[in-house]
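This is your field. Pick holes in the following sequence-structure pair:
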Amino acid sequence: MRKYAILNAEDISTRMANESVDKSKDALRKTVRNVDKRIVRWDGDNVPYGCSDVATYTHAEILAIVNDESGDWWQELPTLEDLT
C-alpha cells in the first residue's frame, strides 16, 4: 500500500527523494501557496531514508488534504471557457 508524508522542502535529502516513488526532489509534489512543503510517496515497507519517524497518510487522507480548497495544495484549474 502506498504511503505519503508531508515534509518541509529543506528537510528532504537527495537520498530521501531518490528512494521515493518520484525518484528526485524536482518530481515531488509542491505546495502552491504560503509554505514550502513537498509530498514524499513510497510503497509498503520501502520507506525512504529519513522517513521512518514522520507522520504518514493513506491515499484517502492525502487526497482530502490536497483537495481542500482552503489549503496550501489546492490549485483551481482553468475551465475550457477560461482557455478560449
The chain has a mean pLDDT of 91.
